[in-house]
Protein backbone atom coordinates (compact mmCIF):
# COMPACT_ATOMS: atom_id res chain seq x y z
CA UNK A 1 0.00 0.00 0.00
CA UNK A 2 1.42 3.39 -0.94
CA UNK A 3 0.74 6.54 0.99
CA UNK A 4 1.17 10.22 0.15
CA UNK A 5 3.52 12.28 2.28
CA UNK A 6 2.73 15.90 2.89
CA UNK A 7 4.94 18.51 4.54
CA UNK A 8 3.83 19.41 8.07
CA UNK A 9 3.05 23.06 8.78
CA UNK A 10 2.66 23.87 12.48
CA UNK A 11 -0.27 26.07 13.51
CA UNK A 12 0.92 29.48 14.72
CA UNK A 13 -0.28 30.68 18.08
CA UNK A 14 -1.44 27.24 19.32
CA UNK A 15 0.91 25.29 21.65
CA UNK A 16 1.85 21.85 20.39
CA UNK A 17 0.58 18.87 22.45
CA UNK A 18 3.11 16.90 24.48
CA UNK A 19 4.69 13.92 22.74
CA UNK A 20 3.88 10.44 23.96
CA UNK A 21 6.63 7.85 24.53
CA UNK A 22 7.78 6.51 21.23
CA UNK A 23 5.94 9.17 19.24
CA UNK A 24 7.91 10.82 16.40
CA UNK A 25 8.13 14.61 16.21
CA UNK A 26 6.37 14.65 12.86
CA UNK A 27 3.66 12.26 11.69
CA UNK A 28 4.73 9.73 9.11
CA UNK A 29 1.41 9.48 7.42
CA UNK A 30 -1.96 11.20 7.40
CA UNK A 31 -4.01 8.14 6.57
CA UNK A 32 -6.57 8.10 9.34
CA UNK A 33 -8.02 4.74 8.19
CA UNK A 34 -4.93 2.66 8.94
CA UNK A 35 -5.64 -0.41 11.10
CA UNK A 36 -4.04 -0.54 14.50
CA UNK A 37 -2.04 2.52 15.40
CA UNK A 38 -3.49 6.01 15.59
CA UNK A 39 -2.33 9.05 13.67
CA UNK A 40 0.71 9.57 15.83
CA UNK A 41 2.03 6.01 15.49
CA UNK A 42 1.24 5.06 19.12
CA UNK A 43 -1.32 2.45 20.22
CA UNK A 44 -4.89 3.60 20.04
CA UNK A 45 -5.88 5.20 23.35
CA UNK A 46 -8.60 3.89 25.55
CA UNK A 47 -12.08 5.05 24.71
CA UNK A 48 -11.45 4.96 20.97
CA UNK A 49 -12.14 1.97 18.77
CA UNK A 50 -9.41 0.51 16.65
CA UNK A 51 -9.89 -0.62 13.07
CA UNK A 52 -11.36 -3.95 14.17
CA UNK A 53 -13.99 -2.28 16.39
CA UNK A 54 -12.41 -3.52 19.69
CA UNK A 55 -11.20 -0.90 22.18
CA UNK A 56 -7.46 -1.14 22.89
CA UNK A 57 -6.25 -2.00 26.34
CA UNK A 58 -5.61 0.99 28.64
CA UNK A 59 -4.49 4.49 27.80
CA UNK A 60 -5.91 7.99 27.95
CA UNK A 61 -7.44 9.42 24.81
CA UNK A 62 -5.22 11.99 23.13
CA UNK A 63 -7.19 14.78 21.40
CA UNK A 64 -6.26 15.57 17.84
CA UNK A 65 -5.83 19.20 16.64
CA UNK A 66 -9.38 19.20 15.24
CA UNK A 67 -11.08 17.66 18.25
CA UNK A 68 -12.50 20.96 19.56
CA UNK A 69 -13.93 22.40 16.37
CA UNK A 70 -15.63 21.44 13.14
CA UNK A 71 -13.36 19.63 10.75
CA UNK A 72 -12.29 21.31 7.55
CA UNK A 73 -11.55 19.00 4.61
CA UNK A 74 -7.88 18.95 3.73
CA UNK A 75 -6.72 20.32 7.11
CA UNK A 76 -4.27 18.54 9.35
CA UNK A 77 -5.88 15.59 11.12
CA UNK A 78 -8.70 15.10 8.63
CA UNK A 79 -9.20 12.05 6.49
CA UNK A 80 -10.19 12.36 2.82
CA UNK A 81 -13.77 11.37 3.66
CA UNK A 82 -14.24 14.39 5.98
CA UNK A 83 -14.10 12.52 9.30
CA UNK A 84 -12.22 13.47 12.43
CA UNK A 85 -8.63 12.63 13.19
CA UNK A 86 -9.12 9.24 14.94
CA UNK A 87 -10.28 6.86 12.26
CA UNK A 88 -13.21 7.03 10.00
CA UNK A 89 -16.15 9.02 11.26
CA UNK A 90 -19.00 8.75 8.78
CA UNK A 91 -21.42 10.47 11.14
CA UNK A 92 -19.55 13.82 11.16
CA UNK A 93 -21.14 16.46 9.01
CA UNK A 94 -19.10 18.06 6.23
CA UNK A 95 -18.30 21.80 6.21
CA UNK A 96 -21.29 23.93 5.37
CA UNK A 97 -21.22 27.61 4.34
CA UNK A 98 -22.56 30.30 6.72
CA UNK A 99 -26.30 30.61 6.93
CA UNK A 100 -28.40 33.46 5.69
CA UNK A 101 -27.93 36.70 7.59
CA UNK A 102 -24.27 36.08 8.42
CA UNK A 103 -22.20 39.21 8.00
CA UNK A 104 -18.53 38.63 7.47
CA UNK A 105 -17.61 42.31 7.37
CA UNK A 106 -15.97 43.19 10.64
CA UNK A 107 -14.97 46.74 11.46
CA UNK A 108 -13.03 48.33 14.24
CA UNK A 109 -15.69 50.85 15.17
CA UNK A 110 -15.64 51.76 18.83
CA UNK A 111 -19.34 52.60 18.93
CA UNK A 112 -21.19 49.29 19.42
CA UNK A 113 -24.51 50.53 20.78
CA UNK A 114 -27.66 49.22 19.21
CA UNK A 115 -28.96 52.78 18.93
CA UNK A 116 -27.45 55.32 16.58
CA UNK A 117 -25.43 58.13 18.14
CA UNK A 118 -27.32 61.42 18.63
CA UNK A 119 -27.16 63.97 15.82
CA UNK A 120 -24.44 66.61 15.93
CA UNK A 121 -26.79 69.50 16.69
CA UNK A 122 -28.43 67.56 19.57
CA UNK A 123 -25.24 66.23 21.12
CA UNK A 124 -24.42 68.19 24.26
CA UNK A 125 -20.80 67.06 24.13
CA UNK A 126 -20.19 69.30 21.13
CA UNK A 127 -20.56 72.80 22.55
CA UNK A 128 -18.28 75.12 20.67
CA UNK A 129 -18.38 77.78 17.99
CA UNK A 130 -20.68 80.83 17.99
CA UNK A 131 -23.13 79.21 20.45
CA UNK A 132 -20.53 78.63 23.18
CA UNK A 133 -21.51 80.28 26.45
CA UNK A 134 -18.00 81.56 27.08
CA UNK A 135 -17.86 83.31 23.71
CA UNK A 136 -21.36 84.72 24.21
CA UNK A 137 -20.47 86.13 27.64
CA UNK A 138 -17.30 87.69 26.27
CA UNK A 139 -19.37 89.21 23.46
CA UNK A 140 -21.88 90.74 25.91
CA UNK A 141 -19.06 92.08 28.08
CA UNK A 142 -17.36 93.68 25.08
CA UNK A 143 -20.63 95.28 23.90
CA UNK A 144 -21.33 96.88 27.28
CA UNK A 145 -17.75 98.12 27.59
CA UNK A 146 -18.01 99.86 24.20
CA UNK A 147 -21.46 101.20 25.13
CA UNK A 148 -20.15 102.56 28.43
CA UNK A 149 -17.36 104.41 26.66
CA UNK A 150 -19.84 105.91 24.18
CA UNK A 151 -22.21 107.09 26.88
CA UNK A 152 -19.38 108.61 28.91
CA UNK A 153 -18.24 110.65 25.92
CA UNK A 154 -21.78 111.74 25.04
CA UNK A 155 -22.80 112.87 28.51
CA UNK A 156 -19.44 114.57 28.94
CA UNK A 157 -20.41 116.68 25.89
CA UNK A 158 -23.83 117.27 27.45
CA UNK A 159 -22.25 118.44 30.70
CA UNK A 160 -19.85 120.81 28.91
CA UNK A 161 -22.56 122.25 26.65
CA UNK A 162 -24.89 122.70 29.63
CA UNK A 163 -22.62 124.17 32.31
CA UNK A 164 -20.15 126.21 30.21
CA UNK A 165 -21.81 129.47 29.14
CA UNK A 166 -19.29 130.37 26.41
CA UNK A 167 -19.81 127.06 24.59
CA UNK A 168 -23.57 127.40 24.99
CA UNK A 169 -23.46 130.84 23.42
CA UNK A 170 -21.23 129.63 20.56
CA UNK A 171 -23.61 126.78 19.77
CA UNK A 172 -26.66 129.06 19.74
CA UNK A 173 -24.98 131.43 17.32
CA UNK A 174 -23.45 128.81 14.99
CA UNK A 175 -26.37 126.51 14.33
CA UNK A 176 -24.79 125.31 11.08
CA UNK A 177 -22.50 123.09 13.14
CA UNK A 178 -25.54 121.03 14.05
CA UNK A 179 -26.24 120.32 10.38
CA UNK A 180 -22.60 119.34 9.80
CA UNK A 181 -22.62 116.94 12.74
CA UNK A 182 -25.93 115.50 11.55
CA UNK A 183 -24.52 114.78 8.08
CA UNK A 184 -21.44 113.13 9.62
CA UNK A 185 -23.67 111.04 11.88
CA UNK A 186 -25.89 109.96 8.99
CA UNK A 187 -22.91 108.89 6.85
CA UNK A 188 -21.37 106.98 9.76
CA UNK A 189 -24.61 105.12 10.45
CA UNK A 190 -24.94 104.12 6.80
CA UNK A 191 -21.34 102.88 6.67
CA UNK A 192 -21.63 100.79 9.85
CA UNK A 193 -25.08 99.43 9.07
CA UNK A 194 -24.64 98.65 5.38
CA UNK A 195 -20.94 97.74 5.09
CA UNK A 196 -20.36 94.53 6.97
CA UNK A 197 -16.69 94.41 5.97
CA UNK A 198 -16.13 97.76 7.73
CA UNK A 199 -17.90 97.02 10.99
CA UNK A 200 -16.19 93.61 11.31
CA UNK A 201 -12.67 94.75 10.44
CA UNK A 202 -10.43 96.06 13.17
CA UNK A 203 -9.57 98.94 13.64
CA UNK A 204 -11.83 100.50 11.00
CA UNK A 205 -14.93 99.48 12.92
CA UNK A 206 -13.73 101.37 15.98
CA UNK A 207 -12.79 104.39 13.86
CA UNK A 208 -16.25 104.54 12.28
CA UNK A 209 -17.94 104.09 15.65
CA UNK A 210 -15.78 106.82 17.19
CA UNK A 211 -16.72 109.28 14.43
CA UNK A 212 -20.39 108.41 14.90
CA UNK A 213 -20.15 108.83 18.67
CA UNK A 214 -18.47 112.23 18.42
CA UNK A 215 -21.01 113.55 15.91
CA UNK A 216 -23.95 112.26 17.96
CA UNK A 217 -22.42 113.68 21.14
CA UNK A 218 -22.15 117.09 19.54
CA UNK A 219 -25.80 117.01 18.41
CA UNK A 220 -27.04 115.86 21.83
CA UNK A 221 -24.92 118.47 23.59
CA UNK A 222 -26.20 121.18 21.25
CA UNK A 223 -29.85 120.16 21.88
CA UNK A 224 -29.23 120.10 25.64
CA UNK A 225 -27.79 123.63 25.51
CA UNK A 226 -31.22 124.97 24.53
CA UNK A 227 -32.79 123.64 27.77
CA UNK A 228 -32.43 124.64 31.39
CA UNK A 229 -29.79 122.95 33.47
CA UNK A 230 -32.36 121.45 35.87
CA UNK A 231 -34.30 119.99 32.96
CA UNK A 232 -31.19 118.34 31.52
CA UNK A 233 -30.18 116.88 34.88
CA UNK A 234 -33.65 115.44 35.47
CA UNK A 235 -33.74 113.96 31.96
CA UNK A 236 -30.33 112.34 32.48
CA UNK A 237 -31.40 110.81 35.82
CA UNK A 238 -34.70 109.45 34.52
CA UNK A 239 -32.99 108.05 31.41
CA UNK A 240 -30.42 106.26 33.54
CA UNK A 241 -33.08 104.67 35.76
CA UNK A 242 -35.30 103.63 32.86
CA UNK A 243 -32.48 102.16 30.78
CA UNK A 244 -30.90 100.29 33.69
CA UNK A 245 -34.26 98.77 34.66
CA UNK A 246 -35.12 97.75 31.09
CA UNK A 247 -31.70 96.18 30.48
CA UNK A 248 -31.78 94.14 33.71
CA UNK A 249 -35.35 93.02 33.05
CA UNK A 250 -34.55 92.02 29.47
CA UNK A 251 -31.56 89.96 30.57
CA UNK A 252 -33.53 88.07 33.24
CA UNK A 253 -37.00 87.56 31.78
CA UNK A 254 -38.00 84.44 29.84
CA UNK A 255 -40.30 86.40 27.56
CA UNK A 256 -38.93 86.76 24.04
CA UNK A 257 -39.14 90.42 22.99
CA UNK A 258 -37.31 89.72 19.74
CA UNK A 259 -40.46 88.16 18.31
CA UNK A 260 -42.03 91.65 18.37
CA UNK A 261 -39.35 93.24 16.21
CA UNK A 262 -41.62 93.50 13.15
CA UNK A 263 -44.38 95.19 15.14
CA UNK A 264 -41.94 97.72 16.58
CA UNK A 265 -40.62 98.52 13.12
CA UNK A 266 -44.16 99.30 11.92
CA UNK A 267 -44.70 101.50 14.99
CA UNK A 268 -41.45 103.33 14.18
CA UNK A 269 -42.73 104.17 10.69
CA UNK A 270 -45.98 105.48 12.20
CA UNK A 271 -43.98 107.56 14.70
CA UNK A 272 -41.92 109.10 11.90
CA UNK A 273 -45.09 110.11 10.06
CA UNK A 274 -46.47 111.54 13.30
CA UNK A 275 -43.25 113.53 13.72
CA UNK A 276 -43.67 115.14 10.29
CA UNK A 277 -47.18 116.22 11.31
CA UNK A 278 -45.83 117.77 14.50
CA UNK A 279 -43.50 119.94 12.42
CA UNK A 280 -46.44 121.66 10.75
CA UNK A 281 -48.86 121.53 13.70
CA UNK A 282 -47.53 123.76 16.48
CA UNK A 283 -49.33 122.38 19.50
CA UNK A 284 -47.62 121.84 22.85
CA UNK A 285 -49.84 118.95 23.95
CA UNK A 286 -49.38 117.20 20.61
CA UNK A 287 -45.61 117.51 20.98
CA UNK A 288 -45.71 116.08 24.50
CA UNK A 289 -47.75 113.11 23.25
CA UNK A 290 -45.29 112.60 20.40
CA UNK A 291 -42.32 112.68 22.81
CA UNK A 292 -44.03 110.25 25.17
CA UNK A 293 -44.77 107.77 22.39
CA UNK A 294 -41.20 108.07 21.13
CA UNK A 295 -39.73 107.40 24.58
CA UNK A 296 -42.02 104.37 25.00
CA UNK A 297 -41.17 102.98 21.55
CA UNK A 298 -37.41 103.25 21.99
CA UNK A 299 -37.70 101.71 25.44
CA UNK A 300 -39.19 98.67 23.74
CA UNK A 301 -36.39 98.78 21.16
CA UNK A 302 -33.89 98.81 24.01
CA UNK A 303 -35.43 95.64 25.43
CA UNK A 304 -35.33 93.92 22.01
CA UNK A 305 -31.75 94.98 21.25
CA UNK A 306 -30.65 93.80 24.68
CA UNK A 307 -32.09 90.34 24.11
CA UNK A 308 -30.40 90.16 20.71
CA UNK A 309 -27.14 89.83 22.65
CA UNK A 310 -28.18 86.72 24.56
CA UNK A 311 -28.29 84.26 21.68
CA UNK A 312 -31.07 82.10 23.17
CA UNK A 313 -34.04 83.94 21.65
CA UNK A 314 -35.75 83.80 18.29
CA UNK A 315 -33.39 86.46 16.92
CA UNK A 316 -29.77 86.95 17.92
CA UNK A 317 -26.60 88.70 16.82
CA UNK A 318 -23.33 87.02 15.96
CA UNK A 319 -20.45 87.62 18.40
CA UNK A 320 -18.61 89.27 15.50
CA UNK A 321 -21.22 92.06 15.45
CA UNK A 322 -20.26 93.73 18.73
CA UNK A 323 -19.92 97.13 17.01
CA UNK A 324 -23.38 96.89 15.49
CA UNK A 325 -24.85 95.71 18.82
CA UNK A 326 -23.24 98.61 20.69
CA UNK A 327 -24.56 101.02 18.04
CA UNK A 328 -28.13 99.74 18.48
CA UNK A 329 -28.06 100.10 22.26
CA UNK A 330 -26.38 103.50 22.05
CA UNK A 331 -28.95 104.98 19.66
CA UNK A 332 -31.81 103.54 21.76
CA UNK A 333 -30.53 105.18 24.95
CA UNK A 334 -29.81 108.50 23.25
CA UNK A 335 -33.28 108.60 21.70
CA UNK A 336 -34.87 107.83 25.08
CA UNK A 337 -32.90 110.70 26.61
CA UNK A 338 -33.87 113.14 23.85
CA UNK A 339 -37.58 112.26 24.05
CA UNK A 340 -37.61 112.55 27.85
CA UNK A 341 -35.78 115.87 27.54
CA UNK A 342 -38.43 117.01 25.04
CA UNK A 343 -41.24 116.03 27.45
CA UNK A 344 -39.76 118.11 30.28
CA UNK A 345 -38.87 120.95 27.93
CA UNK A 346 -42.38 121.19 26.46
CA UNK A 347 -43.96 120.81 29.90
CA UNK A 348 -41.89 123.71 31.26
CA UNK A 349 -42.41 125.80 28.11
CA UNK A 350 -38.69 125.96 27.22
From TrEMBL:
<dbReference type="GO" id="GO:0005794">
    <property type="term" value="C:Golgi apparatus"/>
</dbReference>
<dbReference type="InterPro" id="IPR006214">
    <property type="entry name" value="Bax_inhibitor_1-related"/>
</dbReference>
<feature type="transmembrane region" description="Helical">
    <location>
        <begin position="322"/>
        <end position="344"/>
    </location>
</feature>
<dbReference type="Pfam" id="PF01027">
    <property type="entry name" value="Bax1-I"/>
</dbReference>
<keyword id="KW-1133">Transmembrane helix</keyword>
<comment type="similarity">
    <text>Belongs to the BI1 family.</text>
</comment>
<feature type="region of interest" description="Disordered">
    <location>
        <begin position="1"/>
        <end position="20"/>
    </location>
</feature>
<feature type="region of interest" description="Disordered">
    <location>
        <begin position="71"/>
        <end position="99"/>
    </location>
</feature>
<keyword id="KW-0812">Transmembrane</keyword>
<feature type="transmembrane region" description="Helical">
    <location>
        <begin position="288"/>
        <end position="310"/>
    </location>
</feature>
<keyword id="KW-0472">Membrane</keyword>
<feature type="transmembrane region" description="Helical">
    <location>
        <begin position="176"/>
        <end position="194"/>
    </location>
</feature>
<feature type="transmembrane region" description="Helical">
    <location>
        <begin position="232"/>
        <end position="251"/>
    </location>
</feature>
<feature type="transmembrane region" description="Helical">
    <location>
        <begin position="206"/>
        <end position="226"/>
    </location>
</feature>
<dbReference type="GO" id="GO:2001234">
    <property type="term" value="P:negative regulation of apoptotic signaling pathway"/>
</dbReference>
<feature type="transmembrane region" description="Helical">
    <location>
        <begin position="263"/>
        <end position="282"/>
    </location>
</feature>
<protein>
    <recommendedName>
        <fullName>Glutamate receptor, ionotropic, N-methyl D-aspartate-associated protein 1b (glutamate binding)</fullName>
    </recommendedName>
</protein>
<dbReference type="GO" id="GO:0005783">
    <property type="term" value="C:endoplasmic reticulum"/>
</dbReference>
<feature type="transmembrane region" description="Helical">
    <location>
        <begin position="143"/>
        <end position="164"/>
    </location>
</feature>
<dbReference type="GO" id="GO:0016020">
    <property type="term" value="C:membrane"/>
</dbReference>
